Amino acid sequence: MTTLYAIYGASGCGRSLMPVARQQLARQGDASEIIFIDDALTDIASVNGHRAMNYQAFLNETVSEKCVQIAIANSRVREKIAQRLEADGIQLWSITADHVVLMDQIELDEGSALSPFVSIGSNVKIGKCFHANLYSYVEHDCVVGDFVTFAPGVKCNGNIHIHAHAYIGAGAMIKQGTPDQPLVIGTGAIVGMGAVVTKSVPAGATVVGNPARIMTQK
After folding, report:
1. 3.40.50.20, 3.40.50.720, 3.40.50.1110, 3.40.50.1010: which CATH number matches 3-93?
2. pTM recorded for the entire structure
3. Which position among 99, 140, 161, 163 bears the catalytic label?
C-alpha cells in the first residue's frame, strides 16, 4: 500500500513541522514521501527539498492512502481545511517529535502536531488539530478543546480547561486550577505573549500582562 503524507502549509509553521514529520516516519521505518500543500502554487515546486503543490494537484496524486497534517497557525482556517479533508475522505495526520514526553492516560485526538520538547502530563484530554510548539507543556488533568494553539514555551499547569480555538502566546503561564474549580480559558480567547494567567478568561477575550488582564473582548 502506498501512502502519501502531506504538510498543509509551506510557510514558517509548515517548514518547522516538516522535520518533525520526517522524524516520525523514520521512527516507524516508513519510507513514504512527504510533500507540502500550498494553495498559492500553480505548478509543482520544491520547498526545503520536498515536492510542493496545490490542493487540487494533491487530490490528483494516485496513491492508495493520503494523510495530512494541517500546519496553519490560524485555527479557523485549520478548521475549514479539516472539514474539506473530511469531505474528500482524507485522513488527518498526527505528528510527534522525537523528544516529546507523553505520560499516562492521555486522549489525543487526530491531527495534532507536537514539536520538540513538548510534554503532556497524565490524565489529559486534547481535541482535534492541537498545535503545541517548542518547549510547551500541558500538565495533569487538563482538558483542551479542538483547534487550540500553543506558541513556544507555554506553561499550562494542572486542572485547566482550554476551550476550542484558544490561542496561547509564547512564554505564557497559566496558573493551576483545582479539581472542583478548574481554571477556564474560554472559546476563541487569546492569551498574550508572556502573560501570567491567574484567573479564568472569558470566551473571545484577549488578555495580557502579569497578572493577565483583559485588553479586548468580543
Report:
1. 3.40.50.20
2. 0.96
3. 140
